[in-house]
Write a structure and sequence with these properties.
The complex is a heterodimer of chains A (549) and B (86). Chain A contains 27 helices and no strands. Chain A is mostly helical and 549 residues long. The model of chain A is unreliable at 1-6 (pLDDT under 50). Chain B has a two-stranded antiparallel sheet. Classes of the chains: A mainly alpha (549), B mainly alpha (86).
Chain lengths: 549, 86
């Protein structure tokens, strides 16, 4: 079977029409909705006016990256059920963010989690965190940018450089024009487009394969299971040890809690109740699309095992396109390609908004705090355009260490951002010394023990090291340990405490939870700090032990 | 310390545990191998239960979480010593 031809459109005209029409629509939504933005707050938070359903769609779309159409199904083909476990837990991100810090930070009125870090821990720590966040977002965006360029390359028959520059410029343009208003409404539209483009054709594929549950593809493919078990007996095997599955918690669950572009979705909500409503909608939209993704991966393995076709490992990421090419007419494949591009765009636009907000609000605005509104507006547009251009330039010839799995970016966010924000919101004794030590030491160690810097200096090795799982299992608890331990020690050294506004920092904690009258007792348990410190140390030791993977 | 504060801490810890249980349900099947291999709705248990818990179970928990934390916000805002939402 000539796989290179299975996904390719014989006549790309129809694909070009679908993609062009979707871009015209994205620009129109961006331009139309951005007319409401009058101030910087409007630009970065959509005027804090986005309703629950739109916000839920936007939150879910941040997860429906190009990987949903390509990388995820490839990994199901390779890893089978363990990868499904890996993906399921992403649904926890927004509920945990909302529960642990989304609503307090929304109440505080911040643009990004780095802004909270600045108020809570001071400038030095916030610059460090903002730099890590920009790196995380660049790692995230580059993979998407390269993916979209490759789809453009295949669709239009142009070379990679031209596809990247033109595709990248189109994306940066509509994000900069639309701001968070445009991004939010576009993300909601893109989520619907990609959901339909993924699930409906999957139903047709399942019907052609003989499944009676084709009318609800996400869950009704049990009648294919016996044939699957006969052809691929190990499909439902667990394969890895307890440590591998446990490491998903620090790497991906806590990691997602540190991703700035997810937290930013909560800040666009019109009020706290709307933010929580969006969280419930998010779990619905995520659940249905994720479940359909597992069904697509299952169908891919089933197709390979039962049809006699051989898919080369290099083509695993094209399984969605291959199945549509085999079982559906060309116009459906063109629609799926448009959905895949929409998925890539929704993620890149969220990444670019985060990069722009971090550069404009958390770095430049703190260095030049008295810029007038006109200059701020130029700064806002420039920050997004500049971030986008840098991402395009890096994607032209990306260094190897940046083209790593996007999952490594999750791990870095879990190490450098999440512990600071969680402890900063819930524990008054966390101070600036502890926060700086925690994020700096753990962040540098996480990067150093990844196989992309010093291949010999890794923990566990193999897949856990490549995906950042062994690094995160060590460095996330290490950051919690350092923040709590260093804070408790330095809080008992008057010469150090007197050098920081510790009392003001403690009052901030009460205020973001809604209290106006300060109480020293709230969120101030030393015992809690000791417990976190001891438990974290236990997990640091557990991570270092070589067995269990 | 007042009851709203205690409730806030209790809800946060409780829902964290419940959310982790829905999203990492697979850990039970790794830790306890006898749970695996039973067919439920035509799928092996170690596959379908984590998938359903990660979607429908999660929706149920977040729905209850939203309701209870909204009620708690109302309770805190009804007290005298708090700010109103911006």
């Amino acid at each position: 079977m000539d796989n290179a031809q299975q996904w390719a459109l014989e006549d790309p005209t129809i694909g070009i029409i679908f993609v062009a029409a979707s871009f015209i629509f994205f620009y129109f939504i961006g331009w139309y909705s951005a007319r409401a933005a009058k101030t910087s707050t409007d630009y970065w938070t959509a005027g804090r006016s986005i309703g629950a359903v739109t916000n839920g769609l936007g939150m879910a779309s941040s997860y429906m990256s190009l990987a949903t159409f390509m990388g995820v199904t490839a990994l199901i083909l390779k890893l089978k059920v363990p990868f499904v476990y890996m993906w399921i837990q992403f649904g926890l991100s927004i509920p945990l963010i909302t529960l642990w810090y989304g609503t307090p930070l929304r109440r505080m009125g911040v643009f990004t989690p780095a802004q909270f870090v600045r108020e809570r821990y001071g400038l030095k720590t916030s610059y460090t965190v903002a730099m890590f966040m920009v790196l995380i977002m660049v790692m995230y965006a580059i993979g998407q940018m390269i993916g979209v360029a490759k789809v453009f390359e295949m669709l239009f028959g142009v070379n990679y450089t031209l596809a990247l520059v033109c595709g990248g410029a189109l994306i940066v343009g509509y994000v900069a024009i639309g701001g968070m208003y445009g991004t939010s409404y576009n993300a909601a539209f893109q989520m619907i487009l990609m959901g339909v483009a993924f699930i409906v054709p999957l139903g047709a594929i399942m019907k052609a394969m003989g499944s009676s549950g084709w009318y609800f593809p996400p869950l009704l493919y049990a009648d294919m299971v016996p044939a699957m078990l006969a052809a691929v007996p190990d499909f439902f095997d667990m394969k890895f040890g307890f440590k591998w599955y446990f490491a998903l918690i620090p790497t991906l669950t806590i990691g997602a809690m540190g991703l700035p572009h997810l937290g930013m979705r909560v800040y666009t909500a019109s009020n706290l109740k709307s933010a929580r409503g969006a969280m419930v909608w998010f779990t619905f939209f995520c659940g249905i699309t994720f479940s359909a993704t597992y069904a697509m991966g299952f169908s891919g393995v089933f197709f390979q095992a039962t049809s006699g076709a051989t898919i080369a490992p290099t083509d695993y990421d094209k399984i969605t396109l291959i199945l549509n090419g085999v079982y559906n007419p060309p116009w459906v494949l063109a629609f799926v390609i448009a959905g895949a591009i929409a998925a890539g765009l929704s993620t890149i636009s969220a990444n670019l908004m985060a990069i722009g907000a971090l550069i404009a609000q958390d770095i430049i605005a703190t260095l030049k705090p008295n810029l007038d509104e006109a200059k701020t507006k130029v700064l806002n547009y420039s920050a997004i355009a500049g971030g986008g251009i840098i991402a395009i330039l890096i994607a032209l010839n990306p260094p190897d260490f940046l083209v790593v799995s996007v999952l490594c970016a999750f791990g870095l966010a879990g190490v450098t951002v999440a512990p600071l924000v969680i402890l900063g919101v819930w524990w008054k004794q966390a101070n600036r010394y502890g926060a700086f030590a925690g994020t700096f030491i753990s962040g540098i160690l996480y990067i150093a023990i990844s196989p992309y810097i010093f291949p010999e200096f890794v923990l566990a090795g193999g897949l856990p090291a490549k995906l950042g799982m062994s690094g995160a299992l060590l460095c996330v608890p290490l950051c919690f340990f350092l923040v709590t331990t260093v804070s408790m020690i330095t809080n008992r050294i008057p010469a150090l405490v007197n050098r920081i506004p510790h009392e003001e920092d403690k009052r901030l904690v009460d205020s973001i939870h809604g209290w106006t009258v300060y109480s020293e007792e709230r969120y101030n348990s030393t015992m809690a700090g000791v417990i976190i410190s001891v438990v974290s140390l236990f997990f640091v030791i557990y991570a270092i032990l070589p067995s269990g993977w | 310390m007042n009851s709203a504060y205690k409730k806030e801490i209790r809800y946060t810890l409780l829902f964290s545990v419940l959310l982790l249980m829905t999203g990492h349900c697979g850990l039970f099947f790794v830790a306890f191998p006898p749970l695996r291999g039973h067919m439920i709705f035509g799928f092996p248990s170690q596959f379908i239960i984590p998938v359903l818990m990660g979607w429908l179970g999660l929706m149920l928990v977040t729905g209850i979480q939203a309701k209870l934390t909204n009620d708690l916000d109302d309770e805190i805002e009804a007290m005298e010593d708090v700010v109103k939402e911006s």
